[in-house]
Amino acid sequence: xxxxxxxxxxxxxxxxxxxxxxxxxxxxxxxxxxxxxxxxxxxxxxxxxxxxxxxxxxxxxxxxxxxxxxxxxxxxxxxxxxxxxxxxxxxxxxxxxxxxxxxxxxxxxxxxxxxxxxxxxxxxxxxxxxxxxxxxxxxxxxxxxxxxxxxxxxxxxxxxxxxxxxxxxxxxxxxxxxxxxxxxxxxxxxxxxxxxxxxxxxxxxxxxxxxxxxxxxxxxxxxxxxxxxxxxxxxxxxxxxxxxxxxxxxxxxxxxxxxxxxxxxxxxxxxxxxxxxxxxxxxxxxxxxxxxxxxxxxxxxxxxxxxxxxxxxxxxxxxxxxxxxxxxxxxxxxxxxxxxxxxxxxxxxxxxxxxxxxxxxxxxxxxxxxxxxxxxxxxxxxxxxxxxxxxxxxxxxxxxxxxxxxxxxxxxxxxxxxxxxxxxxxxxxxx
Length: 431
Fold this sequence. Notes:
- Helix content is about 80%, strand content about 0%.
- With about 425 residues, the protein is an all-alpha fold.
């Protein structure tokens, strides 16, 4: 009798978040998976960001340029791994690699005498890690859930990222005083090993609970063959994928403007004070994100459709950047960061991930990292040097730069709307 009646938790989740009973275990596991990943990253993020105010716009832009090339190389290596490794081993291997890298980096930090070089190396490597581990996670999600489930569940799963991003910076503040900065490398390394059992469990649930055996080929014994560099070619030749890439570049563009404005306004604070400000800022961002993603994202996409879902946040940023142009103070810059990142993680990011449910499996695993990492970091490079040219080259003030940012946000809104229309057209064709 009990197996025919949904449990209390299952009924509650179905009412609040549209989760069916057979999806509860997979959703909770995925939620926990991304919670741990994001907490591991956000333990380190405030420390990384606090370093940037010690450097000029040009120095930060140079680090972003270095990061772009390193990220591109990592994507190429990942493409080779995707082509040659059993998928069941691939995803755990990625997280084991990053865990090992942080352990090695800890040893490097302990033995180095050049603090500036260590800080800049740390800044670049955490930035590589920030995008790569999330991209791999969402590829795994797109291969676990079908299109219908993705529309209902990705927002809830993304809330796990938000909750982890709330816990991470709070833990960071606590750990900096308790064990110091360098030991936090080891904490993140340990945390990155925790999701591995969840990866294996989700692989079993895909067939036993979700009944998604036909969503893609059986990965238990298969490899994703073909040219490992096809992702780069398809990115430039497929208009749909290119549109996603342009959307991300524009997102990074407005994000770069907001980030660098904050950096310059925080120069007068000590590194410890900056770390605290960034940690509490990140906790606020992700608290708002958690509420948005868990209760609203799925319903916004279902009720309004994909075009508004992708355009709402850029439209808000148009007005926000204009406010910053008239009031270039720290509170306004931090406020824009909160709107941008909460809107991205709570609405734009999960909606953007749904776009990949209308591409084939090879594109999902080879082109998606190109978009998520190369296009993202390429946007950082382009917009970072653009910002540097406006401030250190032309000599524009923060107010004028914010006005330029409003124009970038308007273009971002237009691309998001058009991309959403393309998605809806593909969805209609599949019906």
